[in-house]
Amino acid sequence: MARLARLSLPSQVHYVRVYGAADISLMPMLEDLDAMLSLFSKVVSLHHVDMTGYAILPSQIDFLITPRNSAEDVSKFTQAFCRLYSRYFNDAYRRSGALWHGRFRSCVVQGKNRCLNALLYMEWLPETKGYQEAVLYPWSSYSHHAGLRNDYFMAPGKEYWGLGNTPFERQKAYKVLFPGGYPKREGEDLEKHLLRGWPWAEREFLLENHVEPSRIWPERGRGRPRKSEISN
Q1: Which residues contact 112 (CB under 8 A, 6 or more apart)?
Q2: pLDDT tens profile 38-48
Q3: How far is CA 6 from CA 22, 178, 181, 231, in A?
């Protein structure tokens, strides 16, 4: 079966993931955190995207980004990030060779609370994968959203913005919300859609944006049709 081209939409949130090569850990040393954040800022500015979340794990890096003007900026941002991060990482740790494995994954995220749940899912990954307690993990955007660090390149998502009228109120509300985690079913659905490149969005939204039916989850059947379907 031919591989579907990536679906990207302007002014819409996208969950993006890049995988690292099997023999390395993508996490920089803690003392290199400022350099990493500076790199994020450069790529966000260069390719006109808003970043609303990130998590750097040993095997992968996940982002929540929104292209402001052009859908193509999702790919441009990701490719530029991978290129610059490879250069930074190889120089910093005196290594050479490929840093990434395979194509990056992405899916459009839309619908009530889905962007907020995607953010919670992403920032919980360090703990769910057994690396470190999520609230203590410095290589994710949790520290920014909880008011523990100011990641100056970040843009608040609409649902995070709705948590309060001031930055302090939003940070306080997020710290209260975060320990509750994310709905398990939502996390499972997000992973399924991300790995297949299908939009995690409401059907009406997809139809309004002329997304082909083959990308809409309920209409993607598995295997051959049943005999009853053939006879009808």
Answers
A1: none
A2: 888 999 988 88
A3: 24, 31, 29, 35
